Amino acid sequence: MRGRDEESFVVLTLLLLFLSAFSAFSASSTSSTSSASSASSALSALSPYFTSMSTPLLPLQHKTALITGGSKGIGLGIAKAMAKEQMKVAITSRHLVDAESIIEELLKLGASDAYALQADVREYKAQLIVAAKVVERFDSLDVVMANAGVGHFGAIDTMSHKDWHETIDTNLTGVFYTLQATIDALKKSQGYFITIASLAGTNFFANGAAYNASKYGLVGFTQAVMLDLRKYGIKVSTIMPGSVATNFNNHVPSAEDDWKIQPEDIGQIVIDMLKMNPRTLPSKIEVRPSMPK
Protein backbone atom coordinates (compact mmCIF):
# COMPACT_ATOMS: atom_id res chain seq x y z
CA MET A 1 0.00 0.00 0.00
CA ARG A 2 1.23 3.46 -0.84
CA GLY A 3 0.15 7.07 -0.56
CA ARG A 4 -3.39 7.59 0.62
CA ASP A 5 -3.96 3.90 1.24
CA GLU A 6 -1.00 3.77 3.61
CA GLU A 7 -2.11 6.93 5.43
CA SER A 8 -5.65 5.57 5.77
CA PHE A 9 -4.28 2.33 7.16
CA VAL A 10 -2.27 4.15 9.86
CA VAL A 11 -5.17 6.41 10.81
CA LEU A 12 -7.60 3.50 10.96
CA THR A 13 -5.20 1.46 13.10
CA LEU A 14 -4.82 4.30 15.61
CA LEU A 15 -8.58 4.79 15.69
CA LEU A 16 -9.17 1.12 16.37
CA LEU A 17 -6.60 1.12 19.18
CA PHE A 18 -8.30 4.14 20.71
CA LEU A 19 -11.75 2.58 20.47
CA SER A 20 -10.49 -0.68 21.93
CA ALA A 21 -8.93 1.10 24.91
CA PHE A 22 -12.02 3.25 25.37
CA SER A 23 -14.23 0.17 25.28
CA ALA A 24 -12.14 -1.59 27.92
CA PHE A 25 -12.12 1.51 30.17
CA SER A 26 -15.85 2.03 29.80
CA ALA A 27 -16.64 -1.62 30.44
CA SER A 28 -14.80 -1.43 33.82
CA SER A 29 -17.29 1.15 35.04
CA THR A 30 -20.81 -0.06 35.79
CA SER A 31 -22.09 3.43 35.13
CA SER A 32 -20.74 3.44 31.59
CA THR A 33 -22.49 0.43 30.10
CA SER A 34 -24.02 2.40 27.24
CA SER A 35 -20.65 3.96 26.35
CA ALA A 36 -19.00 0.56 26.23
CA SER A 37 -21.79 -0.72 24.03
CA SER A 38 -21.41 2.22 21.64
CA ALA A 39 -17.67 1.74 21.41
CA SER A 40 -18.05 -1.97 20.79
CA SER A 41 -20.60 -1.30 18.05
CA ALA A 42 -18.26 1.17 16.38
CA LEU A 43 -15.42 -1.33 16.57
CA SER A 44 -17.56 -4.05 14.99
CA ALA A 45 -18.67 -1.74 12.20
CA LEU A 46 -15.08 -0.85 11.32
CA SER A 47 -13.72 -4.39 11.46
CA PRO A 48 -14.79 -5.40 7.91
CA TYR A 49 -13.18 -2.27 6.51
CA PHE A 50 -9.98 -2.97 8.41
CA THR A 51 -9.97 -6.59 7.21
CA SER A 52 -10.45 -5.63 3.55
CA MET A 53 -7.59 -3.13 3.75
CA SER A 54 -5.21 -5.58 5.40
CA THR A 55 -5.88 -8.43 2.93
CA PRO A 56 -3.64 -8.02 -0.14
CA LEU A 57 -4.92 -8.67 -3.64
CA LEU A 58 -3.69 -11.77 -5.42
CA PRO A 59 -0.98 -10.86 -7.97
CA LEU A 60 -3.23 -11.75 -10.94
CA GLN A 61 -6.60 -10.87 -9.43
CA HIS A 62 -8.89 -9.16 -11.96
CA LYS A 63 -6.32 -9.51 -14.77
CA THR A 64 -8.02 -10.44 -18.03
CA ALA A 65 -7.33 -13.32 -20.39
CA LEU A 66 -8.57 -14.78 -23.67
CA ILE A 67 -8.00 -18.47 -24.40
CA THR A 68 -8.73 -19.88 -27.84
CA GLY A 69 -9.92 -23.46 -27.77
CA GLY A 70 -10.48 -23.12 -24.03
CA SER A 71 -13.36 -25.55 -23.51
CA LYS A 72 -11.27 -28.69 -23.03
CA GLY A 73 -7.76 -30.12 -22.79
CA ILE A 74 -4.83 -27.78 -22.30
CA GLY A 75 -7.00 -24.70 -22.81
CA LEU A 76 -9.38 -25.77 -20.05
CA GLY A 77 -6.47 -26.58 -17.75
CA ILE A 78 -5.16 -23.05 -18.25
CA ALA A 79 -8.62 -21.52 -17.76
CA LYS A 80 -9.05 -23.34 -14.44
CA ALA A 81 -5.64 -22.22 -13.22
CA MET A 82 -6.49 -18.62 -14.08
CA ALA A 83 -9.87 -18.91 -12.37
CA LYS A 84 -8.16 -19.95 -9.15
CA GLU A 85 -6.15 -16.73 -9.37
CA GLN A 86 -9.43 -14.78 -9.60
CA MET A 87 -8.71 -13.60 -13.12
CA LYS A 88 -11.35 -12.65 -15.68
CA VAL A 89 -11.34 -15.42 -18.27
CA ALA A 90 -12.84 -15.53 -21.77
CA ILE A 91 -12.77 -18.80 -23.70
CA THR A 92 -13.61 -19.58 -27.29
CA SER A 93 -14.73 -22.76 -28.97
CA ARG A 94 -16.02 -23.60 -32.41
CA HIS A 95 -19.18 -24.74 -30.60
CA LEU A 96 -20.68 -22.20 -28.20
CA VAL A 97 -22.37 -24.87 -26.10
CA ASP A 98 -18.96 -26.37 -25.28
CA ALA A 99 -17.62 -23.03 -24.06
CA GLU A 100 -20.78 -22.24 -22.10
CA SER A 101 -20.70 -25.61 -20.35
CA ILE A 102 -17.66 -24.73 -18.23
CA ILE A 103 -18.48 -21.13 -17.28
CA GLU A 104 -20.17 -22.08 -14.01
CA GLU A 105 -17.18 -24.23 -13.02
CA LEU A 106 -14.75 -21.38 -13.67
CA LEU A 107 -16.83 -19.03 -11.52
CA LYS A 108 -16.96 -21.58 -8.69
CA LEU A 109 -13.17 -21.91 -8.86
CA GLY A 110 -12.88 -18.18 -8.24
CA ALA A 111 -12.86 -16.41 -11.60
CA SER A 112 -13.92 -12.79 -11.13
CA ASP A 113 -15.73 -13.13 -14.47
CA ALA A 114 -16.02 -15.83 -17.14
CA TYR A 115 -17.18 -15.35 -20.72
CA ALA A 116 -17.98 -17.93 -23.41
CA LEU A 117 -17.65 -17.09 -27.10
CA GLN A 118 -18.05 -19.00 -30.35
CA ALA A 119 -15.27 -18.58 -32.89
CA ASP A 120 -13.14 -20.47 -35.37
CA VAL A 121 -9.54 -19.22 -35.36
CA ARG A 122 -9.36 -19.84 -39.11
CA GLU A 123 -11.70 -16.88 -39.62
CA TYR A 124 -10.04 -13.51 -39.10
CA LYS A 125 -13.32 -11.58 -38.84
CA ALA A 126 -14.44 -13.93 -36.08
CA GLN A 127 -11.25 -13.22 -34.15
CA LEU A 128 -11.78 -9.47 -34.52
CA ILE A 129 -15.30 -9.82 -33.11
CA VAL A 130 -14.04 -11.90 -30.19
CA ALA A 131 -11.34 -9.37 -29.34
CA ALA A 132 -13.82 -6.48 -29.44
CA LYS A 133 -16.35 -8.31 -27.24
CA VAL A 134 -13.73 -9.27 -24.66
CA VAL A 135 -12.39 -5.72 -24.40
CA GLU A 136 -15.93 -4.37 -24.18
CA ARG A 137 -16.79 -6.73 -21.33
CA PHE A 138 -13.49 -6.69 -19.41
CA ASP A 139 -12.32 -3.14 -20.35
CA SER A 140 -8.85 -4.50 -21.15
CA LEU A 141 -7.00 -7.57 -22.34
CA ASP A 142 -3.86 -8.60 -20.46
CA VAL A 143 -3.17 -12.16 -21.63
CA VAL A 144 -3.90 -13.99 -24.87
CA MET A 145 -3.43 -17.75 -25.03
CA ALA A 146 -3.29 -19.01 -28.63
CA ASN A 147 -4.17 -22.57 -27.76
CA ALA A 148 -6.62 -23.84 -30.40
CA GLY A 149 -5.12 -26.65 -32.44
CA VAL A 150 -5.85 -29.79 -34.44
CA GLY A 151 -3.89 -32.77 -35.62
CA HIS A 152 -4.18 -34.80 -38.82
CA PHE A 153 -1.62 -37.53 -39.30
CA GLY A 154 -0.78 -39.71 -42.27
CA ALA A 155 1.79 -40.39 -44.94
CA ILE A 156 2.39 -37.51 -47.31
CA ASP A 157 1.43 -39.53 -50.39
CA THR A 158 -2.05 -40.18 -49.04
CA MET A 159 -2.74 -36.99 -47.07
CA SER A 160 -5.72 -35.05 -48.35
CA HIS A 161 -5.53 -31.37 -49.16
CA LYS A 162 -8.39 -30.82 -46.71
CA ASP A 163 -6.42 -32.28 -43.77
CA TRP A 164 -3.30 -30.35 -44.74
CA HIS A 165 -5.08 -27.01 -44.93
CA GLU A 166 -7.10 -27.55 -41.76
CA THR A 167 -3.91 -28.31 -39.82
CA ILE A 168 -1.92 -25.36 -41.17
CA ASP A 169 -4.86 -22.95 -41.11
CA THR A 170 -5.70 -23.76 -37.48
CA ASN A 171 -2.31 -24.31 -35.89
CA LEU A 172 -0.37 -21.58 -37.68
CA THR A 173 -2.55 -19.12 -39.60
CA GLY A 174 -5.11 -19.19 -36.77
CA VAL A 175 -2.45 -17.98 -34.34
CA PHE A 176 -1.50 -15.20 -36.76
CA TYR A 177 -5.16 -14.13 -36.92
CA THR A 178 -5.52 -14.30 -33.14
CA LEU A 179 -2.50 -12.08 -32.60
CA GLN A 180 -3.44 -9.52 -35.23
CA ALA A 181 -6.96 -9.28 -33.81
CA THR A 182 -5.73 -8.67 -30.25
CA ILE A 183 -2.50 -6.76 -30.81
CA ASP A 184 -3.95 -3.28 -30.24
CA ALA A 185 -5.39 -4.34 -26.89
CA LEU A 186 -2.09 -5.97 -25.91
CA LYS A 187 -0.19 -2.79 -26.79
CA LYS A 188 -2.46 -0.83 -24.45
CA SER A 189 -2.06 -3.28 -21.58
CA GLN A 190 1.57 -4.18 -22.36
CA GLY A 191 0.29 -7.69 -22.04
CA TYR A 192 1.40 -11.26 -22.67
CA PHE A 193 0.86 -13.39 -25.80
CA ILE A 194 1.52 -17.11 -25.31
CA THR A 195 1.27 -19.83 -27.94
CA ILE A 196 0.84 -23.54 -27.30
CA ALA A 197 3.18 -25.29 -29.71
CA SER A 198 4.56 -28.81 -29.23
CA LEU A 199 7.76 -30.80 -29.03
CA ALA A 200 6.69 -31.72 -32.57
CA GLY A 201 7.96 -28.22 -33.36
CA THR A 202 11.54 -29.50 -32.99
CA ASN A 203 11.19 -33.28 -33.39
CA PHE A 204 9.93 -34.71 -36.67
CA PHE A 205 8.31 -38.13 -37.06
CA ALA A 206 6.77 -40.31 -39.75
CA ASN A 207 3.18 -39.47 -40.70
CA GLY A 208 3.58 -36.04 -39.10
CA ALA A 209 4.26 -33.88 -42.15
CA ALA A 210 1.30 -31.53 -41.67
CA TYR A 211 1.50 -31.40 -37.87
CA ASN A 212 5.28 -30.99 -37.84
CA ALA A 213 5.06 -28.24 -40.44
CA SER A 214 2.43 -26.37 -38.41
CA LYS A 215 4.31 -26.63 -35.11
CA TYR A 216 7.78 -25.93 -36.53
CA GLY A 217 6.21 -22.88 -38.15
CA LEU A 218 4.50 -21.86 -34.91
CA VAL A 219 7.72 -22.01 -32.90
CA GLY A 220 9.51 -19.85 -35.47
CA PHE A 221 6.56 -17.49 -35.75
CA THR A 222 6.38 -16.98 -31.99
CA GLN A 223 10.08 -16.29 -31.61
CA ALA A 224 10.08 -13.76 -34.45
CA VAL A 225 6.97 -12.08 -33.01
CA MET A 226 8.69 -11.87 -29.64
CA LEU A 227 11.39 -9.72 -31.24
CA ASP A 228 8.83 -7.60 -33.09
CA LEU A 229 6.66 -6.79 -30.08
CA ARG A 230 8.99 -6.38 -27.13
CA LYS A 231 9.54 -2.73 -28.03
CA TYR A 232 5.87 -2.19 -27.12
CA GLY A 233 6.29 -3.86 -23.75
CA ILE A 234 4.45 -6.98 -24.95
CA LYS A 235 5.89 -10.29 -23.77
CA VAL A 236 5.67 -13.28 -26.13
CA SER A 237 6.41 -16.91 -25.29
CA THR A 238 5.71 -20.39 -26.59
CA ILE A 239 5.13 -23.55 -24.56
CA MET A 240 6.10 -26.81 -26.24
CA PRO A 241 4.49 -29.79 -24.46
CA GLY A 242 5.23 -33.42 -25.11
CA SER A 243 2.57 -36.05 -24.38
CA VAL A 244 -0.43 -34.49 -22.61
CA ALA A 245 -3.50 -36.34 -21.31
CA THR A 246 -6.18 -34.63 -23.42
CA ASN A 247 -8.87 -35.40 -26.00
CA PHE A 248 -6.49 -34.41 -28.79
CA ASN A 249 -6.91 -36.43 -31.99
CA ASN A 250 -10.05 -38.13 -30.58
CA HIS A 251 -8.18 -39.62 -27.63
CA VAL A 252 -10.17 -40.30 -24.44
CA PRO A 253 -8.04 -39.69 -21.30
CA SER A 254 -7.98 -42.53 -18.77
CA ALA A 255 -5.95 -43.83 -15.83
CA GLU A 256 -3.45 -45.19 -18.36
CA ASP A 257 -2.50 -41.56 -19.10
CA ASP A 258 -1.32 -40.82 -15.56
CA TRP A 259 2.31 -40.77 -16.70
CA LYS A 260 1.60 -37.97 -19.15
CA ILE A 261 1.63 -34.23 -18.57
CA GLN A 262 -1.78 -33.20 -17.23
CA PRO A 263 -3.64 -30.08 -18.46
CA GLU A 264 -3.40 -28.55 -14.99
CA ASP A 265 0.40 -28.84 -15.20
CA ILE A 266 0.40 -26.57 -18.24
CA GLY A 267 -1.96 -24.26 -16.37
CA GLN A 268 0.53 -24.00 -13.52
CA ILE A 269 3.35 -23.21 -15.94
CA VAL A 270 1.30 -20.36 -17.42
CA ILE A 271 0.55 -18.91 -13.98
CA ASP A 272 4.22 -19.08 -13.04
CA MET A 273 5.11 -17.26 -16.27
CA LEU A 274 2.58 -14.52 -15.60
CA LYS A 275 3.90 -14.01 -12.07
CA MET A 276 7.55 -13.90 -13.11
CA ASN A 277 9.45 -10.66 -12.66
CA PRO A 278 8.91 -8.69 -15.91
CA ARG A 279 12.65 -8.24 -16.34
CA THR A 280 12.84 -11.94 -17.27
CA LEU A 281 11.16 -13.60 -20.26
CA PRO A 282 11.03 -17.40 -20.68
CA SER A 283 10.53 -17.13 -24.42
CA LYS A 284 10.50 -20.85 -25.27
CA ILE A 285 9.61 -23.59 -22.81
CA GLU A 286 9.94 -27.30 -23.56
CA VAL A 287 8.02 -29.58 -21.20
CA ARG A 288 7.83 -33.36 -21.28
CA PRO A 289 6.75 -36.24 -19.03
CA SER A 290 9.33 -37.05 -16.37
CA MET A 291 9.00 -40.79 -16.98
CA PRO A 292 7.70 -41.41 -20.51
CA LYS A 293 6.30 -44.77 -21.52
Say what the CATH topology of the largest domain is: Rossmann fold
**Low-confidence blocks of residues:** 1-8, 29-33, 49-55
Strand segment tally = 7
CATH superfamily of the largest domain: NAD(P)-binding Rossmann-like Domain
Determine Rg (CA atoms, Å).
25 Å
Separate helix tally? 9
The average pLDDT value, as a whole number, equals 87
Global shape: globular
CATH architecture of the largest domain: 3-Layer(aba) Sandwich
**Could you give the order of the helices and strands?**
HHEHEHHEHEHEHEHE
Strand order of the largest sheet: 3-2-1-4-5-6-7
Derived from helix and strand composition plus strand pairing, the structural class reads: alpha/beta
> Largest sheet at a glance?
7 strands, parallel
Oligomer: single chain
Compute the number of structural domains: 2
CATH class of the largest domain: Alpha Beta
> Which range does the strand content fall in?
5-15%
Description:
The chain is α/β, with parallel strands linked by helices. It has 2 domains: 51 residues; 224 residues, NAD(P)-binding Rossmann-like Domain (Rossmann fold). Helix content is 51%, strand content 12%. The protein is built from 9 helices and 7 strands. A 7-stranded parallel β-sheet has the order 3-2-1-4-5-6-7, sandwiched between helices. The longest helix has 29 residues. The protein is globular. The N terminus is likely disordered.
